[in-house]
């Protein structure tokens, strides 16, 4: 175990000032994405150009293998556990494939106590935030979990991939970072310049224009461990401050922690390589392309004719939120003809995982 390090922490007073509340708008965001894609289709980069930003000095650079540690934060809820089990299954399936630089795996469990998956998934237990501090926004525990893990755990790899339970590895993942430039995924809705007045509360003018803030979240990100050790405490403190401010909380809602990470990175002068091929998000993305990760955060609802039904439960559907307290059954039905290949691939990968994970539907694994 590593010795304790000196790092910035949120003050007890700040923690006590936080109250309750959470803003969810999954389908609203889904529809916003759909309209954005239609509006922006003329400005898309060619499909074979998946890097939207990379510093000139590192383009084309290569070198020896640079393994990265795969880290996912999770809770002890059934909802988190079944997603982590599927994610870990696919991590093991692709880890040793050609081109992979994937290293060891850790589920950073921020429940403060072990759970029933300790023997199945490599797990490091950390403490949650004090009671009621997350105010129903459980993701607020994420930066605090990383601060503790980085401080206390022994991590052999020089780089870390911050991933999420609803990530499925489609193929072996290389290290997309370059030297001191981490790699992230560009989210179109992450636009600090459109919220400049709010952002300036946490990114003062002396730090430069708000365009220095990358259009990323904290996942997926591949980053040097030393850089994450520097950023994580700031990310935590910015998150707590943002959640404590009603105007900021209302502005950013459920993506508040994403903005907090992007702002914290910019405060430390860190810029990310932006990789569109890092992941896809069905049903918004209809083509698999050369992606590495499927992110199944959105509901997939289709008519019997294979037409997507925005904001309406379809004749066929898969939505992870339908399994917040239970499990997806083995052998989910495949979508009807005409549904995009990304959705078909997602369901087939979930079916393979649940068919091969021992004790998938054993209640003892979720107690």
Description:
The protein is of the alpha/beta class. It has 2 domains: about 70-275, Spore Coat Polysaccharide Biosynthesis Protein SpsA, Chain A; about 300-365, no CATH class. The chain has 9 helices and 13 strands. It has an 8-stranded mixed β-sheet, sandwiched between helices. Helix 3 links the parallel strand 2 (about 70-75) and strand 3 (about 100-110). Helix 3 packs across helix 9, helix 4 runs antiparallel to helix 6 and helix 6 (about 225-245) crosses helix 8. The radius of gyration is 20 Å and the shape is globular. The relative contact order is 0.16. The model is unreliable at about 1-50 (pLDDT under 50). This is Hydroxyproline O-arabinosyltransferase-like domain-containing protein. Keywords: Glycosyltransferase, Membrane, Transferase, Transmembrane, Transmembrane helix. It is a single-pass membrane protein.
Radius of gyration based on Cα positions: 20 Å
Given as residue ranges, the uncertain stretches (5+ residues, pLDDT < 50) are 1-48
CATH topology description of the largest domain: Spore Coat Polysaccharide Biosynthesis Protein SpsA, Chain A
Number of helices: 9
Mean of pLDDT: 87
CATH superfamily of the largest domain: Spore Coat Polysaccharide Biosynthesis Protein SpsA, Chain A
Strand order of the largest sheet: 1-9-7-8-5-2-3-4
Strand content: 5-15%
CATH architecture of the largest domain: Alpha-Beta Complex
Query: What is the chain-wise order of helices and strands?
Result: HHEEHEEHEEEHEHHHEEEEEH
**What share of the residues lie within helices?**
25-40%
The oligomeric state of the chains shown is single chain
What's the number of structural domains? Answer: 2
Number of strands: 13
CATH class annotation of the largest domain: Alpha Beta
Largest sheet: 8 strands, mixed
């Amino acid at each position: 175990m590593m010795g304790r390090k000196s790092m910035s922490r949120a003050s007890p007073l700040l923690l006590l000032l936080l109250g309750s509340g959470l803003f969810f708008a999954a389908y609203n965001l889904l529809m916003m994405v759909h309209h954005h894609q239609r509006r922006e289709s003329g400005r898309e980069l060619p499909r074979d150009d998946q890097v939207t930003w990379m510093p000139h000095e590192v383009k084309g650079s290569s070198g020896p293998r640079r393994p990265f540690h795969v880290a996912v934060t999770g809770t002890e809820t059934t909802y988190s556990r079944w997603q982590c089990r599927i994610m870990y299954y696919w991590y093991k399936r692709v880890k040793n494939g050609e081109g992979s630089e994937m290293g060891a795996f850790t589920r950073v469990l921020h429940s403060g106590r072990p759970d029933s998956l300790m023997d199945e998934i490599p797990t490091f237990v950390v403490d949650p935030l004090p009671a009621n501090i997350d105010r129903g926004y459980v993701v607020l525990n994420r930066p605090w979990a990383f601060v503790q893990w980085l401080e206390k755990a022994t991590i052999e790899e020089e780089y870390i991939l911050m991933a999420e339970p609803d990530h499925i590895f489609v193929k072996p993942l290389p290290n997309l970072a370059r030297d001191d430039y981490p790699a992230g995924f560009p989210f179109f809705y992450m636009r600090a310049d459109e919220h400049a007045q709010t952002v300036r509360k946490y990114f003062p003018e002396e730090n430069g224009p708000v365009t220095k803030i990358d259009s990323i979240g904290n996942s997926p990100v591949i980053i040097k461990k030393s850089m994450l050790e520097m950023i994580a405490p700031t990310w935590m403190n910015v998150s707590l401050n943002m959640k404590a401010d009603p105007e900021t909380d209302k502005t950013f809602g459920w993506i508040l922690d994403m903005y907090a990470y992007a702002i914290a990175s910019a405060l430390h002068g860190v810029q990310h390589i932006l990789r569109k091929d890092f992941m896809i998000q069905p049903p918004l993305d209809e083509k698999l392309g050369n992606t590495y990760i499927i992110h199944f955060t959105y509901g997939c609802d289709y008519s019997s004719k294979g037409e997507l039904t925005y904001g309406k439960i379809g004749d066929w559907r898969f939505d992870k939120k339908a399994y917040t307290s239970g499990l997806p059954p083995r052998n989910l039905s495949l979508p009807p003809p005409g549904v995009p290949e990304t959705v078909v691939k997602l369901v087939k990968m979930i079916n393979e995982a649940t068919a091969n994970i021992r004790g998938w539907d054993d209640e003892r694994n979720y107690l």
